[in-house]
């Protein structure tokens, strides 16, 4: 079964999203997704990776991942190239599941569970005003989440204060103000709701320690990205100075970057973003590495619906999966996920249910392609990928006695 065509799909309404579809000569179509930089992602898909994959066997997922990564790693892989690899990888796993007639988690070794607890990140969409309530009416928000059966939440309580000085200046008055929403939630619902803070990498180490220690009396679920994950040693220091677990991080790309944080003990909660770090292939390996270090995995979201489906397969399979991030403003009543995919994800009583059906368990709605704001770009030709404006030469190397003959060409120029 050969790959015949690769598409990128963009909708102007959801400008950060890129959906990728991989077509085969057997009629199977795999769906993938990534987020941010859609023009650069499309360039990587069509200029670099489509020529590499068109005409190749669709089931060779591990080989394709390695070939794509090796190409991108020649000049720095952690950007649009990694996002493109992630989306293509998800689509290839979707095809594999469809061919096998099984959900992807069965291809990964089977399910450890049939649902996983979710936590709500307080975005908002349409009539949903969760983001506003997180800052000005947090107690009501906490009660509303519990009414939906959701027992954990996350919000960036410190972001508005970090933006004033790039995280360098933290006044005592500001520190007291950023604690008020957390105090309001604890006053409203006690310890019924687990609360995590996301610092979005905006603080320096000194202030991160102050924030973590100030929030520790509220029994925080974790502190996420109080500092940027560019310094392993500083994360170790932070973990030693605060009680809440240090959560790292959607900004780490590939098992190679996660390895350094896991080895150092700097990642107490492991949070890969599946559509940025390398897709299902790489996230499964990261989860296994975390399991070996006795650390829990809580995949990152706040993007599109395909990511949640792909993460759900990891969460059903990985023994050390703890929580799955979701946003009820996106998947719930009036949310936008249902406008793009069918079926939608299923969250019942705060639990993300296992996808059903073969492959991912979802697909783009047919009417997506009828929308006025849709752009579809397609590649269907094999060939040498763009590589400095030239193709690699092909020649033979013959041993001295003629007993060994090797045809040389860079591995990705098949």
Explain this structure to me?
The structure is a single chain. By secondary structure, the chain is of the alpha/beta class. It folds into two domains: 3-101 and 365-379, Enolase-like, domain 1, CATH 3.30.390.10; 106-356, Alpha-Beta Barrel (TIM Barrel), CATH 3.20.20.120. Helix content is 39%, strand content 18%. It contains 15 helices and 17 strands. The chain has helices spanning 38-53, 61-73, 80-100, 104-107, 130-136, 138-147, 159-162, 172-189, 205-215, 232-241, 254-264, 274-277, 279-292, 305-317, 328-331; strands at residues 3-11, 17-24, 29-35, 115-121, 152-155, 194-198, 222-224, 246-248, 269-270, 324-326, 341-342, 347-348, 351-353, 363-364, 374-379, 395-398, 405-408. Strands 4, 5, 6, 7, 8, 9, 10, 12 and 13 form a nine-stranded mixed sheet that branches. Strand 7 (222-224), helix 10 (232-241) and strand 8 (246-248) form a beta-alpha-beta unit. Helix 3 (80-100) crosses helix 13 (279-292) and helix 6 (138-147) packs parallel to helix 8. The longest helix has 21 residues, at 80-100. The mean pLDDT is 94.
């Amino acid at each position: 079964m050969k790959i015949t065509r690769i598409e990128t799909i963009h909708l102007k309404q959801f400008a950060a999203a890129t959906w990728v579809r991989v077509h085969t000569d057997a009629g199977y179509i795999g769906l993938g997704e990534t987020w941010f930089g859609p023009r650069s992602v499309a360039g990587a898909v069509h200029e670099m990776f489509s020529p590499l994959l068109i005409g190749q066997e669709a089931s060779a997922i591990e080989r394709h991942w390695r070939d794509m990564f090796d190409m991108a790693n020649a000049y720095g892989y952690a950007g649009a190239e990694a996002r493109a690899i992630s989306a293509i990888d998800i689509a290839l796993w979707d095809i594999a599941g469809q061919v096998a007639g099984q959900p992807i988690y069965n291809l990964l070794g089977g399910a450890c569970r049939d649902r996983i607890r979710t936590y709500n990140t307080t975005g908002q969409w349409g009539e949903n005003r969760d983001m506003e309530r997180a800052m000005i009416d947090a107690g009501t928000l906490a009660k509303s989440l519990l009414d939906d059966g959701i027992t954990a939440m996350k919000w960036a309580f410190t972001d508005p204060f970090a933006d004033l000085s790039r995280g360098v200046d933290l006044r005592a008055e500001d520190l007291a103000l950023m604690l008020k929403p957390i105090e309001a939630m604890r006053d409203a619902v006690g310890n019924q709701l687990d609360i995590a803070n996301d610092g979005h990498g905006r603080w320096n180490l000194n202030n991160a320690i102050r924030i973590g220690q100030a929030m520790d009396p509220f029994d925080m679920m974790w502190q996420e990205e109080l500092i940027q994950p560019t310094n392993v040693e500083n994360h170790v220091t932070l973990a030693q100075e605060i009680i809440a677990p240090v959560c790292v991080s959607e900004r780490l790309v590939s098992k190679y970057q996660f390895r350094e944080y896991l080895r150092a003990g700097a990642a107490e909660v492991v949070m890969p973003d599946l559509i940025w770090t390398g897709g299902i292939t790489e996230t499964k390996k990261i989860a296994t590495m975390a399991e070996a270090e006795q650390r829990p995995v809580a995949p990152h979201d706040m993007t599109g619906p395909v990511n949640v489906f792909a993460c759900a397969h990891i969460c059903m399979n990985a023994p050390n999966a703890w929580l799955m991030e979701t946003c009820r403003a996106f998947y719930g009543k009036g949310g936008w996920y249902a406008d793009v995919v069918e079926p939608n994800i299923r969250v019942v009583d705060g639990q993300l249910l296992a996808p059903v059906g073969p492959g991912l368990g979802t697909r783009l709605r047919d009417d997506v392609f009828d929308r006025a704001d849709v752009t579809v770009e397609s590649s269907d030709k094999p060939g040498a990928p763009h590589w400095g404006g030239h193709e690699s030469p092909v020649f033979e190397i013959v041993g001295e006695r003629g007993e060994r003959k090797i045809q040389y060409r860079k591995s990705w120029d098949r």
